[in-house]
Every structure is written in structure tokens, then in C-alpha cells.
Write a structure and sequence with these properties.
Blueprint lengths: L1 H32 L7 H29 L15 E6 L5 E7 L10 E3 L3 H6 L7 E6 L2 E11 L5
Parallel strand pairs: 2-3
Antiparallel strand pairs: 1-2, 1-5, 4-5
Helix pairs in contact: 1-2
Length: 155
């Protein structure tokens, strides 16, 4: 799982570096050639995009560093933690839902990948099979029972 996250971050960083070093300089050069920069929206947009790309690259570098610091040996095997796949029963409608706990912005709602920092993710961390979990969400409170889980060591 960690290797996949590192690959995704690396791919995004590579794309952004190409944009920063190849595409944006050409756009800025083209906008400068048009003359008066004070009223040139293309120039302003390219500079703003350049700032965004630099900030995103800084963020991705920090994420890559954090992933490198993760000690897989310290991830618990007896309770829900990073990389766990968790099946929960909604106590209101008795429906079973599954979530995959991941970190940060590696969220994919369609695949039920949720961040450990999300309200549901925070509530599930450290839980064991059979435990009840209450979660406050913008749409209201929900209660779950942990039906089963697999840690990243099991997957």
C-alpha cells in the first residue's frame, strides 16, 4: 500500500514538474510577448498556476517524506489502523459497509478508501471486532459496529 501511494505521489510530482519547467514558461513567454502585463489575464493566470504548482510540489514532497517515515512494524495487527479494510454495520439501517483506511489525500470514495483523518476514519482507528463506534458527520450522527477487519499485514 505504501509503495502504491509513493508511486501515485511520484507520478503526480513528475507531471507537475513538467508543467512547471516546460508548459508554464512557454505560457508566460507567450503572454509577455503580448505586451502590457498589467491587464494581461493570461500572464496573471500563468503566474497563479505557477504558484499553485510550486505549493503542490512542496506538499507532495512532505507527503513522500512522511510515507518514508512510516514504520510498518509498528502498525497494529490486532486492531484497526493504517491500511486496514474494515467492515461495519450501520446500527440504524443494519447495512454493512466496508472502508479502507488510508492517509491524507489518498481518498477514493468510489472504492471506499477513506482518510484516517476523516471523522469515520478517526472513529475507527484502534477499534476491535465487536466494538461500537459513534461518528458525528455533517449530515448527523451515525453509529456503527465493527463487524470485521483485516490489517495491512493480512492483505
Amino acid at each position: 500500500m505504501i509503495e502504491e501511494l509513493q508511486r501515485k505521489i511520484g507520478d503526480e510530482a513528475e507531471t507537475l514538474l513538467h508543467e512547471l519547467n516546460v508548459i508554464l514558461p512557454k505560457e508566460i513567454e507567450k503572454a509577455v510577448a503580448q505586451g502590457d502585463l498589467r491587464e494581461n489575464s493570461e500572464y496573471t493566470a500563468a503566474l497563479e498556476r505557477q504558484g499553485f504548482v510550486r505549493a503542490r510540489l512542496d506538499y507532495l514532497a512532505r507527503r513522500m517524506s512522511q510515507l518514508g517515515e512510516l514504520d510498518i512494524e509498528n502498525i497494529p495487527t490486532d486492531r484497526v489502523g493504517f491500511g486496514s479494510r474494515v467492515a461495519v454495520r450501520d446500527l440504524e439501517d443494519d447495512e454493512i459497509e466496508s472502508f479502507n483506511l488510508t492517509i491524507g489525500d489518498d481518498v477514493d470514495i468510489e472504492n471506499n478508501d477513506i482518510s484516517m483523518e476523516s471523522p469515520i476514519g478517526r472513529a475507527l482507528l484502534g477499534r476491535r471486532k465487536g466494538e461500537l463506534v459513534s461518528v458525528r458527520l455533517p449530515a448527523g450522527a451515525r453509529e456503527f459496529e465493527v463487524v470485521d477487519f483485516e490489517t495491512m499485514h493480512d492483505l
